[in-house]
Amino acid sequence: MRLPARSVWALTFGAVLLLILACEPSVVRYPTAGRTDTTGVDTSGGVIRKATLTVRLTIDPRDTGIANALGWAGGIPAGVQVAARRAGSSIELTASTDSAGIARYVNILEGNYSVSVVRVLDSAENARLSQSDRDVNALGGALALDVKAPGTDSALALAAGRRGSLVISEFSDEIPYVGGLGQYSYSGFVELYNNSDTTIYLDGKIIGNGQEGWWQYPTHPCQLISPLLGDSIGVWALWMYAFPGSGREHPLPPGGLIVVATDAIDHTPLFPEGVYDLSNADYESVGSSDTDNPGVPNLIWLGPNEPNTGHGMFYFELWPVPFLALPVDTASLPRQPNVINGKYYQRVPRDRILDIGQFEFDLSAYSSSAPPCTTNPVHPSLDQSPFFFRGLDGYSEQRRGVGRLPDGRKILLRTRNSARDFLSAPGTPFQLP
After folding, report:
1. Rounded to whole angstroms, how far apart are CA atoms 267 and 281?
2. CA 276 → CA 166, 176, 248, 412, distances in Å?
3. Is the CB of residue 248 less than 8 Å from the CB of residue 199?
4. Max Cα distance, the chain (Å)
5. Cα–Cα distance measured from residue 69 to residue 140, given in angstroms and rounded to the nearest whole number
6. pLDDT by residue (tens digit) across 124-167?
């Protein structure tokens, strides 16, 4: 049985390094081959230790007005589903809150767990909110825990999720790897959706890639790039592209979606699976060495670095951080060097960020001695925690839906927490699942 393309890439450290160097010839990176969670095993006697995990849900202090309007002044209501997944396992455990807003998992393995929750509001609950809060459609939150026997207790604060305007509805940085053919880096795409009730003009708006995560390597420790990680002022961009137009030339109506391709061609003849026909993409990025599709409008490269594939936008597959932003004067943005790869990054202010996603390739099934520098490359106020994806052939990361409006339009979840806002599913560019 052939492993998924990304799993094959992750299994051999030497292969990983060669592939990344082939893709980024001027960048020396040392990607981890994975992290095996052995904290639940007593290797001296082979005894597996069990624990109880207790999670108390609370409301973010900034959203107490919303909780009060919903009648939740005394805390989270009973029956809210809390999900927990142990590192290295694909099994998601669920537990419901009791009348005190507490969820318990009994007799579970020790280990590193990601815990998350989303509480979707129904139409009656939304109607109770003030006019300024009517764009709130859910409350959600997530955290990472090291669960130890006999038990671990933790609090998890839920924050209001607002619909926003232009959001990332689907993301694929698929880099299929087929024996004898190598790595193919040009079939990625970003799908955007108008999640609001008014027409959005794409002109000048920005698609970019923020500083990715990093690992604590002896020769390239975390402190070398610490200024680029978790900055509360904004997002440090490796590269940025802008939509063409002078202001009102590229409208996107409510419920409208577009696909932006790295290369707007049919990629399916090149590999048997894991790529898409993107010849009808709405826009494509450009690079110094790619073939242009004359029937698809080009994005405008803004800097500060050209993606090293030469084909336009390219996301580092192990930890991509795509973001959307309002137009900015890039010449005025602060610059900061990354001493590991020798490139300069530019900081996009947080008040210009429309949407952001954090996606980390789940390498927990493999072994590595290098721990990650942080679980959040961007500041938690912009996005609380990353979504861990498995890298299955033909799958993409897709934003969850929370219902439909009376006119049939889908509303997508946006709690500013990628761990809950996204899921992995077979790719569906050009349509919402």
Report:
1. 12
2. 23, 11, 30, 23
3. no
4. 69
5. 17
6. 998 999 998 988 988 888 887 889 999 999 999 888 888 889 99
With tokens 């929370």, the residue in question is 402
Question: What three-state secondary structure class fits 13?
Answer: helix
Residue type, 255: G
Q: How many Å separate Cα 123 from the centre of its chain?
A: 28
The label of the residue with tokens 């109506």 reads 253
CA distance 315 to 303: 15
For residues 290, 293, 299, 304, the Cα torsion angle rounded to the nearest 10 degrees is 0
pTM: 0.79
411, β-bridge pairs: 403
Helix (H, G, I), strand (E, B) or coil at 202: coil
Torsion of CA 223, 351, 298, 272, to 10 degrees: 60
Which one, of 268, 226, 195, lies nearest residue 414 by Cα? 195
- Angle formed at CA 248 by CA 297 and CA 352, multiple of 5 degrees: 90
Instruction: Report the sign of the C-alpha dihedral through residues 391, 401, 99, 63, in that order.
Output: positive
Instruction: List C-alpha distances in Å: 209 to 42, 190, 212, 255, 323.
Output: 41, 11, 8, 25, 6
Count the helix, strand and coil residues of the chain and give each as a percent rounded to the nearest 5: 10, 35, 50
* Paired tokens of 234: 């904004």
- How many distinct helices (H) and strands (E) make up the chain? 5, 30
Distance of alpha carbon 338 from alpha carbon 233, whole angstroms: 18
Instruction: Enumerate residue ranges in the chain where pLDDT < 50.
Output: 1-44, 365
